[in-house]
Specification:
The complex is a heterodimer of chains A (237) and B (255). Chain A is of the alpha/beta class and 237 residues long. Chain A is 34% helix and 26% strand. Chain B has helices at residues 3-13, 16-35, 39-68, 70-77, 83-113, 116-143, 147-175, 182-191, 193-204, 212-222, 225-251. Classes of the chains: A alpha/beta (237), B mainly alpha (255).
Chain lengths: 237, 255
């Protein structure tokens, strides 16, 4: 599904990603974890084409992200901090995105829209929304167009427990449909029931990429968080 | 018109600043044209105001709008929309809104109080200036991530074309007064979009005679049909080149 080959991304002199090679397959859900500033968001922005690639390449469904923009039809993206036009209402924002994607995909998934009860506050302007409500709008948009790949950047940060439970169930449901889910998160305990593979990054490099079962076996632990801590301790030695 | 451009256009037309701009232009044109009974004189007075106000408003409003829509751009680019399309539609939406504001503000009084023959050239140049300075604004905005710096560049561009450029030309004229430099001067004047707009309107009004020898040169170079064609080509180039440059930079930008 998504292949990342020898990707190096530099911002002036700062190297955000250093020779990253990764491959994500359908039906898996992958957790991207690592300390702040390790290049997770940069990697995601590269996949989405928001950052321009200079060295290396990324292919989505065997198409390079450099050549086309159409591959984004198959991706639903929920940003870490959703930034929306300030003087648009929730309804206008959702309608506009639907309008832009209309001819590609007429069937829309409004499950999250109903679960979050956003229709009740449809008339509110995006600039007046709380951080959590903005996240809800981002989540709704990410799942709305039945994408085959779903990328979630810190999805549960800012959401209340009820909303994050709804979102979590939705993620599991979509994953079971055979979709590729990529999540970045710092809350390791939340990831336990969702993910099947783990990518640990540090200073722009991929340190570990393995399945959760292998991780647990190797480190003799029952939880992902404990496994990661075991890896970190080993690294420090 | 495209969905994105239409959305931007309606967003701008709802903006209070643009409404105020239209009303201001209308009041200025209406009072200037209403006070003077001679069409040519009235059009000339209006010309001087339009040449200052329209570029200033276009360049500053567009720069601020481009910075404010950075979130909108990010949202659109995570959807299946190509980069060039997003940037072009912002340009299209902005210039359409500014041209509309100019047409409503200046066009209607000109049609009401002046004749279409004398007013037409002013309307054409006003529209061109709106588009040209939108294009320059997009270039200014893409050069810097810092909003204050971008607006600074935009204001400098306006001061340069509206004031400094003419000043430099004046110095040159005085320095090289003993040499036959009329041809070079005509060319240099024609490179500045505001200067060219002024000449373009003056020549249509048959007041070039008042400009003395330089006026005769202008009449010779720009007065003919071919000269008018050249003026329009230069003005179009000013509208297109800065935009294309900004587009190239936008396509390489990390958001």
């Amino acid at each position: 599904m998504i292949e990342i080959k020898n990707l190096t991304k530099k911002f002036n002199k700062f190297t955000a990603l250093n020779d990253v090679n990764l491959s994500f397959q359908k039906g898996h859900s992958i957790a991207l974890i690592g300390p702040n500033g390790c290049g997770k968001t940069t990697l995601i922005k590269c996949i989405l084409g928001l950052n321009v690639l200079e060295t290396g390449d990324i292919t989505v469904n065997n198409e390079s992200v450099k050549d086309h923009y159409k591959y984004r039809e198959t991706i639903g993206y929920m940003p870490q901090i959703g930034r929306y036009p300030e003087n648009m209402t929730i309804e206008e924002t959702i309608k506009m995105i639907r309008n832009i994607r209309k001819n590609h995909n007429t069937e829309v998934d409004t499950e999250l829209l109903e679960a979050f009860e956003l229709e009740k506050i449809y008339g509110k302007k995006m600039s007046t929304l709380s951080g959590g409500t903005t996240q809800k709008v981002s989540a709704v948009l990410a799942f709305m167009f039945n994408p085959t790949t779903i990328i979630l950047d810190e999805p549960t940060a800012g959401l209340d427990p009820l909303a994050s439970e709804i979102l979590k169930n939705k993620i599991i449901k979509e994953k079971n449909k055979g979709k590729l889910v990529i999540i970045t998160s710092h809350l390791l305990s939340e990831l336990d029931d969702i993910i099947s593979e783990i990518v640990f990054m540090n200073e722009g490099k991929v340190i570990v990429h393995q399945s959760v079962d292998d991780l647990k076996k190797e480190t003799n632990t029952g939880k992902i968080s404990e496994g990661i801590v075991a890896i970190l301790k080993e690294m420090k030695k | 018109m495209n969905k994105i451009a239409r959305f931007i256009l309606f967003d701008i037309l709802k903006n209070k600043t643009i409404i105020l701009y239209t009303v201001l232009l209308f009041i200025i044109s209406w009072s200037v044209l209403g006070l003077e009974s001679n069409f040519t004189k009235a059009t000339l007075s209006l010309l001087n105001i339009v040449l200052l106000v329209v570029p200033l408003m276009s360049v500053i409003f567009s720069t601020i709008y481009v910075y404010n829509s950075s979130q909108f751009v990010e949202l659109l680019l995570s959807q299946p929309v190509p980069r060039s399309k997003v940037w072009f539609n912002i340009f299209l939406g902005l210039s359409t809104a500014l041209v509309l504001a100019f047409l409503l503000g200046c066009g209607i009084p000109i049609l009401l109080y002046s004749s279409i023959e004398t007013g037409m050239s002013l309307i054409i140049t006003g529209c061109f200036l709106s588009v040209i300075f939108t294009s320059l604004a997009m270039l200014a905005a893409i050069f810097s991530r810092d909003r204050a710096k971008g607006i600074g560049i935009a204001i400098f561009l306006w001061i340069f074309f509206a004031i400094i450029y003419d000043g430099i030309l004046l110095v040159l004229i005085f320095q090289f007064a003993d040499y036959p430099i009329e041809g070079i001067m005509a060319t240099l004047t024609a490179i500045n979009p505001i200067g060219l707009s002024r000449i373009f309107v003056l020549l249509q009004l048959d007041v070039a005679a008042m400009l003395g020898y330089a006026g005769a040169v202008f009449q010779q170079v720009f007065g003919s049909g071919g000269g008018m064609g050249i003026s329009l080509v230069i003005l179009s180039a000013w509208a297109i080149v800065p935009f294309v440059w900004s587009l190239i930079k936008f396509n390489r930008k990390n958001l």
